[in-house]
Design brief:
By secondary structure, this protein is an all-alpha fold. The protein has four helices and no strands. Helix 1 packs antiparallel against helix 2.
Length: 107
């Protein structure tokens, strides 16, 4: 997965592997909290772990990874250079007007 690049200086996106690693680290940390004063912290860590393991969070990660892949691998269907487009239209108009005969007077 992409991870957090360049020690927080780059892309802050993350993937499933990063979340799994975070959950493992949190579980290890929680297990090492042994003092009675750590009970509130243990409860908070458990809630974060449960949230990361939830189906909703997994679905959000899937959507995030899909959108990131789509943006990285897709190319825009076309690019429009407005200056070139205007110049081409002007040249086409000038060529058209110089190659057409003036209107004839009728009657």
């Amino acid at each position: 997965s992409s991870g957090i690049n360049a020690e927080y200086g780059g892309d802050m996106s993350f993937g499933k592997e990063d979340v799994e690693r975070m959950v493992d680290l949190l579980q290890n940390y929680k297990e090492n909290l042994t003092y009675s004063s750590d009970i509130k912290l243990q409860g908070s860590i458990k809630r974060v772990i449960d949230m990361c393991k939830s189906d909703l969070f997994g679905a959000l990660l899937d959507i995030h990874e899909y959108q990131k892949d789509l943006l990285i691998h897709s190319q825009p269907p076309f690019t429009l250079n407005v200056t070139d487009s205007l110049a081409n239209n002007r040249n086409n108009y000038l060529n058209y007007t110089s190659n057409t005969a003036p209107p004839q007077a009728c009657c």
